[in-house]
Amino acid sequence: TLPSTVGARQKVAMLEHALMVAKNAHNGQIRKSGDPYWTHPLAVADILARTMLIPTPNGPREPPAEGCPPEELEELARAFWYRIALGPEDGFDMYIAALLHDTVEDTSMTVAQIQSLFGPSVASLVDGVTKASSGRRSR
């Protein structure tokens, strides 16, 4: 949980940092589609944001279901970041966890590193999502 003094701009910077961590962690990993692997966690986070946020009449448009170029996916996701930053703290933590959800399972990143960078709430969410199918928790 963040201190109440953390403002929306600082939270947007944290979202940017989380995306950069995910991109760096998944550097060189490619999906079957040929897209960089980091597009998967970004798409998951984007779906989560669209589910959590109340639509606005002039809000960001829905990305295409398939074939959205990585740069466009990133631009569309960023369009939500200020609203995510202004939203509930648990939603903010869930979005960051979605960006990082495959880092522990598919890279050398650890839950402890995520906790150090983003706090215990995000680390716990990532740990839970990562290990849900195996029925164990990492430490």
Order of helices and strands: HHHHHHHH
Please state the CA-atom Rg, rounded to the nearest Å. Answer: 15 Å
In DSSP terms (H or I, runs of 4 or more residues), the helix count works out at 8
Structural class of the secondary elements?
mainly alpha
Q: What is the helix content?
A: 55-70%
Distance between the termini: 19 Å
Defining key terms:
139 residues, mainly alpha, 60% helix, globular
Set out the fold topology.
Blueprint lengths: L7 H18 L13 H14 L17 H9 L2 H6 L2 H12 L2 H4 L4 H8 L1 H12 L8
Provide a descriptive summary of the structure in words.
By secondary structure, the chain is mostly helical. 60% of the residues lie in helices and 0% in strands. The protein has helices at residues 8-25, 39-52, 70-78, 81-86, 89-100, 103-106, 111-118, 120-131. It is globular, with a radius of gyration of 15 Å.
Short description:
With about 140 residues, this protein is mainly alpha-helical. The protein has eight helices and no strands.
